[in-house]
Design brief:
- It is a single chain.
- The chain is built from seven helices and no strands.
- It is an all-alpha fold and 176 residues long.
- Helix 6 crosses helix 7.
- The radius of gyration is 23 Å and the shape is elongated.
- The N and C termini lie far apart (73 Å).
């Protein structure tokens, strides 16, 4: 396992790490991301690797821990989205037509891609500046502005009737 480069030959372990990551993630793109994250962690924590220890096992543990972190993060994100949707439903007591309309707008918002939804939420709902939101998301301001613009365009398409988020329809009221 060890090469001429010494005890920290991570490159020699890539094939094994990819195989293990693929078995955890169940698809190649996610496995590649997992290996990348694990290698970044290994590089950042290389000072904790004990000389003479089994590098392969150490790297496998890092891949496993990175996978567990990803799974937990995805579960947490799903729970937050679900709780947000439930809170939004219970926090507005409007007339029937307004309730239906609000449900449609909420659904259109929730159907936005995650990147657009989080960018629009930080800027429009939380009232953060573009710079503050970009810093939170760790992206350039221009990327944030583009995401917000695309999210607003998608919601305008919904408003103009070019896109319907669901089967609910207002009957009677102001919008006949």
């Amino acid at each position: 396992m060890e090469s001429k480069k010494g005890a920290f030959d991570v490159i020699g372990q890539l094939a094994a790490l990819r195989r293990y990551a693929r078995s955890l993630a169940r698809n190649s793109p996610d496995a590649e991301d997992l290996v990348h994250d694990a290698l970044v962690r290994a590089y950042e924590r290389r000072s904790t690797f004990r000389s003479g220890a089994n590098l392969r096992n150490w790297l496998f543990a890092i891949v496993r821990n990175a996978h567990i972190d990803r799974v937990r993060s995805a579960m947490s994100r799903g729970q937050r989205d679900s709780q947000t949707a439930q809170e939004a439903v219970s926090s507005y007591s409007a007339h029937q037509e307004h309730s239906v309309r609000l449900a449609q707008v909420r659904e259109a918002f929730m159907l936005l891609p995650e990147e657009q939804r989080e960018a629009l939420h930080l800027v429009a709902v939380e009232d953060l500046s573009y710079q503050e939101a970009a810093d939170i998301l760790d992206i350039p301001v221009g990327t944030l502005m583009s995401r917000v613009s695309r999210a607003r365009a998608a919601l305008r398409d919904f408003e103009s009737g070019r896109r319907k988020p669901n089967h609910l329809k207002l009957v009677g009221g102001d919008n006949d």
